[in-house]
Amino acid sequence: MEGLKGAFAGQAMSCSRLSAKPTKLKVQTSCVATPVKPPSTKLAKRSKVEIVKEKSDFLRHPLMEELVNENSYINEDAVQLMKFHGSYQQDHREKRAFGQGKFYQFMMRTRQPGGTVPNQLYLTMDDLSEQYGNGTLRLTTRQTYQLHGVLKQDLKTVFSSVIKNMGSTLAACGDVNRNVLASPAPYKHRPEYQYATQYANDIADLLAPQSGAYYDVWLDGEKFFSHEMENPKVTADRAFNGYGTNFENSPEPIYGNLFLPRKFKVAVTVPGDNSVDLFTNDLGLVVITSPSGELEGFDIVVGGGMGRTHRNESTFARLADAIGYVPKEDVFHAVKAIVATQRDYGRRDDRKMSRLKYLVNEWGIDKFRSVVEQYYGKRFQPFRPLPKWEFKDFLGWMDQGDGKLAYGIYVQNGRLKGDLKKALRRVIERYELPVRLTPNQNIILCDIEESWKADIVSTLSGAGIKDTDAIDSLDRYSMACPALPLCGLAIGEAERGLPDINNRIRALMNKLGFGADEHFHIRMTGCPNGCTRPYMAELGFVGDGPNSYQLWLGGTAAQTRLAEPFMERMKVQNLESTLEPILVLFHQQRRPTETLGDFCARVGFEAIRKYSYGYVSEADASKLPQVGLPADLYKSLEAIAAKQGKSLAHVACEAVRQYVQ
After folding, report:
1. What is the Cα Rg of the chain in Å?
2. What is the pTM (predicted TM-score) of this model?
3. For the chain, what is the largest distance between any 2 Cα atoms, rounded to a whole number of angstroms?
4. 292, 487, 526, 644: which one has the fewest Cβ atoms less than 10 Å from its Cβ?
5. Tens of pLDDT along 203-239?
């Protein structure tokens, strides 16, 4: 006890009870430190965005004024506030007219915890995309919709329509908790999956902004009640302030008037199912159930994140660390404690360094845990053992376990458009189907009666929608962000560029003798912020300029290991010449069932680069100048080539290069 007092000198002490094992009939008391007052009361140097938030009256001004003026855009302060309401102002770079400046429009993003979308909301979003958007809907890597192309004068109509049709955009962007991911598995007979969905909704409610500014802006102050009542325990636990997590008498009890230093991402899943890319989140929760399926609690990981900046080594992608286990009755308090720690200790002077991952990285997980426990009021219990993680995409036909079916449909890079969009509308409207959006930009039709299956298959196939087995596996396991021409951060193509890249990779693999079903996880972004989580990919392309990408290798199919940068700049025209030696080496030296990412991690980049350095393709070898060699030397080179599994030209090139240098 003395050591604990010394470690937290000047802070109030509080004792909390932990449940005892029934066989021992004892209550174990754990004492932790509780802050006298949140350290955020001592303001340090802050970025401009922090000042904007502070002066905004909880996200109202100057946004409300900017939305009603005659400009086609909103000013920079309002742009920052607009994010919290679920929208980004964008400039369509390819629609600019000469001499008329930027072509302003808005992207609206929805809030869909666990990707659940009621039938009414799906139809509303489809209508809005046609009436006020660009005719498409974008499914995101965080299980939400993005509606592009909305003009300023239509924003209020679009937002209010979403709110009044079982939807929301509140906190879909901005320095708050973003949309909470959950495994999209449609199984009704698997209680662990039901808990994951339930707690994704509950945590989204727990951390949603409370001031009412959202309704002031979009419904003129009319509070529109959700179609689902908030869990009473969420309400009670949000209000609880026994350990300094809350701002007393504030319209925003958890966030205060400064909100968080930066975006905050949460995911909930079940043991073994890594469809949510668990370790890329600020906070990840794993449902732990008893053998009979009763919820016991949650394993928790913290400190993951993808965003980084090119050639700024102080920024980096990071995987989350295990912080411990909490029983189910304490999970909302634990979540609040982690958020409060980030709120009070995360950096507010440099937004590039403000994510939770940098705080965890600087402190280390042990110090971070000890500070979180001050706000939690308890010790975390030891992390429960978990099975091996697997990537799941939930495509194809599935039995929900309640007598109904679900059908997972592949959507290339998440873009619903054209015949695909029309066919989905017909099926979803005809059978009044709810849907689930997946963390991999796909969509699952739910609650399908067996008798409807044939008609659904006929309607979708008639629109060119392929069944799972007919999709090229490279496409199936790849993702790209929207990038150009709308994203203001994009410096290269992604959504529009990846389909051709995949086709070229498949053609190269066919030439090298790979099987038709050979695949690896490919992800592409138009900038280094990592929205499609490219730093987890087996093969990642990160935009570095026009027709130029950083090349990342070595992630795992299960999304449990970070990839590493293999090449700083690869021009698109050099795709085949860059990848061919890597794939040849992989084809020759892989172990049984070894994936590309695991192979690259095992052999190492030095070996891959060395092999690539002297590699000569068959096509190039036939065009190179001829060099005469004595017969004995030629035979020696042949023997070396055979032993190393290389072509004769490859070995000769390596030998000559080494001699010349």
Report:
1. 27
2. 0.91
3. 90
4. 292
5. 999 999 999 999 999 998 776 655 568 999 999 999 9
